[in-house]
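Methods — Computational structure assignment.
A single polypeptide chain was analysed. Its primary sequence is given first, followed by the predicted tertiary structure written as structure tokens.
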Amino acid sequence: MIDVVSDANVALKWFHEHGEEDVEPARELLARHRAREVMVHVLDLTFYEVANGVVRRWGDAAAAAKLCRSVELRCKGNVVGADPSLLEATAEIAVKHGLTTYDAAYVAAARRFDWRLVSTDVRDLVSKGLAITPDAAV
């Protein structure tokens, strides 16, 4: 089984497709997770980022809460929480690669557990070799 950590960009595509790219590969990743071919992990940060994306795009707090519950149900038991050493690694990666600490947190978790980071953030993560796209993961 392959272990990956999914960022919030990919998790949002599991449930919303209007105006989104890479929806099918993101959903295929989730399908492979359900089939136990791939183990998808998320960070506790993912829930805040998913909620932020929904609130900013649609201004709908109820939809944000619903989507976060859906992510939790799909990734139950596979949620990585912050700790001092992960936060330290996150800050170092953010400085080294010119990333936000949010993006760097996903990279730090992937490195800690020897997982692949799956993201659709081509500009900041994929182009720097820090993540793979969903279609490369499935």
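Note: The first helix runs from residue 8 to 13.
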